[in-house]
Amino acid sequence: MADLFARGEKPEYLFWVGCAGAFDDRYKKVARAFTKILTHLNMSYAVLGKEETCTGDPARRAGNEMLYQMQALQNIEVFKMYEVQKIITICPHCFNIFKNEYPDLGGNYEVIHYTQLLATLIHEGKMKPNKKLTDKVTYHDPCYLGRANHVYDEPRAVIRSVAGSITEMKRNKSFALCCGAGGAQMFKEAEKGNKEVFIERIEDALETGASVIATSCPFCMTMITDGLKYKNKEEEIKNYDIAELIAMDLDL
Amino acid sequence: MVKQVVFAAALLLTLGVFAYTVNRILSFFRFTRKTFPVRDLGKRFGVMMNVAFGQTKIFRRPVIGLLHALVFWGFCVILIGSVEMVIDGLTGTERVLSFLGVLYDVIIATGDVFALVVGLSILVFLSRRLFFHIRRFEGIEMGRSTHIDANIALTMIFLLMVSLQGMNTFYVAHQQVAGETIKGVFPVSNMLASLFTGMQATSLHTLHEVCWWAHILLIFIFANMLPYSKHFHVFMSVPNVFLSRLEPLGKLTNMDSVTREVRLMMNPDTVYAAAPADAPVERFGVKDIEDVSWKNYFDSLSCTQCGRCTSVCPANITGKLLSPRKVIMDVRARMKEKGPGLVKNGKEYADNKSLLRDYITEEELWACTTCNACAMECPININHPSIIVDMRRYLVMEEASAPGELKAVFSNIENNGAPWQFSPEDRLLWAKDLEMKIKN
């Protein structure tokens, strides 16, 4: 973003990579896949790179409002500097916080989750996936996309464009069970109980008999992958992000 | 005339006791905090029609949801009949609303059918509680008293329906035997009445009177039991839906007091300036009952402990201590305990207990994934995660207390701008060797 700005150029979208996209080894691949899609589509976008920082979501949901607001106000200043108006996120937590919570601090943007962008482009015929995927696919709704923001149909539309159909889990859409990582749980051990949440969820996924579990959230991906490992299924069942499914379909 | 006087006295007593109780409960709201303003009345009306009167969220469990919806709609229709009974009781008239003609026939016929439907549904509810092991009705918060409370209320409603059906039946039978016109249409009671047409008109009249009085007195007693019961729900749920938080479930309420402080810190000119004198000194987050918002307390009064929230909670499903229903019940219980002291001694009153720890433990609070399944499921739009996060806010900002891993997350975010310990310098490593064509 800084480089572009120095040249006097202003991209249409800010692609917000998120901490997982930048640092989590598995999710880096998703960030790469989505970048390839953006390039393939000739989109006008930029990333903040080293100037990107945490949105404050895990801090806020863990009760550290002070730290969240410091992060948020700092980010809002950076967005102001680069005159950011449209933000694309891959992480639903970043999506939710920009869309619903930054406006309280004066940060108003058009915030788009990448599944919404892809669904729109597919709907408008600007992107034509080839339905190459023959595996049985199921989809795990991230809480912060689904219940929190009612984005249920767009991710499904994108999956249908590569796989034809989706085999739903028994708990899906607004009934979907959390993967167990939200609300800053991602970063801590779970409280004492008789089961891990991700195991409960992976059992829903296994029940469908799908060989591909699609997700659209970095935390969900970690949990689902952990679940597959726990069940010794990581060889036969794959966990892909929707962006990766599209990138594979388009041979990017 | 005697009947009217007795009736008026009973009604007055009912209203008096009810006003006393409700006033007492309302006085506790003084000690709660402000939260969102109640605007967008049109939108609120829509939500109320949809969620409360349309019963849309209860249908997320279609079978038992339908039974509840029938009971609710039945109550709405039967309520009109109760209003008529009050007018009749005060003025000595008989079925005063019958001047409404066809509309009256429709209301009465619907109410007559509903009396049976509600009665049967209540029997199903009662038998579920008495004879079936239903997980949703169990849990650490569901002590014996909660089950007794539920069973008493259900029994009361059942008796209300029996007395109503009896009243209608003996009315129809009496009118038939006495050869008088029947005001209203009674599809169910008509059939039942045929069993009694062999009786004397006078005895039918007496039986009708007995049922009439039993029904109205049960209503009076029930109305005054409700504020002390989880079934306060009957009065509070529709207003609670009207007062719903209208924002997306994913949104947390901004703490403006924190915004003031952060802005002061970020602006070098004001960093040493004193806080404005008019800024209220308020505890960050929720520790005790006087820190909760009026909406949290309203939620707790409306909750009927159905447990739909807890039954979908990922933490609860996997055996953790957290139960969203318990959090809401604790708010009500704590206010019941501390409220009278606050009223008597003012808001500085302390009883060396608090909502946090004495009712809700840290272990429960930290188990929440903020997935909002509870809030999504609640048929009356209670928002559980808001209070859980508010209690975390107190823990973190006032006591600097959090699980060790989360403290590490905080310092990572502060120091290197990510929850993990990676240098911001490495933020673009993921894109290494990647062709990033940047277009304009």
Name the helix and strand elements of chain A from N-terminus to C-terminus, one letter apiece. HEHHEHHEHEHEHHEHEH
Can you count the beta strands of chain B? 0
Count of individual helical segments of chain B: 18
Which overall shape of chain B is indicated by the principal axes computed on the Cα atoms? Answer: elongated
Strand proportion of chain A, as a percent range, falls in: 5-15%
- Number of alpha- plus pi-helical segments of chain A: 11
Structure description:
- The complex is a heterodimer of chains A (252) and B (440).
- With 252 residues, chain A is of the alpha/beta class.
- Chain A has two domains: 2-117, Rossmann fold (3-Layer(aba) Sandwich); 128-249, Rossmann fold.
- Chain A is 44% helix and 10% strand.
- Chain A has eleven helices and seven strands.
- Chain A has helices at residues 2-6, 18-23, 25-40, 57-61, 65-81, 92-101, 114-123, 153-163, 197-207, 218-230, 242-249; strands at 13-16, 45-46, 86-89, 110-113, 137-139, 212-215, 238-241.
- In chain A, helix 9 (197-207) crosses helix 10.
- Chain A is globular and about 50 Å long.
- The two termini of chain A are 24 Å apart.
- Chain B has helices spanning 2-28, 41-53, 62-91, 102-131, 144-178, 187-193, 201-225, 233-242, 256-266, 294-302, 308-312, 314-317, 324-345, 355-359, 362-366, 373-377, 384-399, 404-416.
- The longest helix of chain B has 35 residues, at 144-178.
- The interface between A and B is large, with 79 and 76 residues.
Question: How would you sum up this structure in a few lines?
Answer:
The complex is a heterodimer of chains A (252) and B (440). Chain A is α/β, with parallel strands linked by helices and 252 residues long.
What layout of secondary structure does this protein have?
The complex is a heterodimer of chains A (252) and B (440).
Chain A: H1 2-6, E1 13-16, H2 18-23, H3 25-40, E2 45-46, H4 57-61, H5 65-81, E3 86-89, H6 92-101, E4 110-113, H7 114-123, E5 137-139, H8 153-163, H9 197-207, E6 212-215, H10 218-230, E7 238-241, H11 242-249
Parallel strand pairs in A: 1-2, 1-3, 3-4, 5-6, 6-7
Helix pairs in contact in A: 3-11, 7-8, 8-11, 9-10
Chain B: H1 2-28, H2 41-53, H3 62-91, H4 102-131, H5 144-178, H6 187-193, H7 201-225, H8 233-242, H9 256-266, H10 294-302, H11 308-312, H12 314-317, H13 324-345, H14 355-359, H15 362-366, H16 373-377, H17 384-399, H18 404-416
Helix pairs in contact in B: 1-3, 1-7, 1-13, 2-8, 3-4, 4-5, 5-6, 5-7, 8-10, 10-13, 13-17
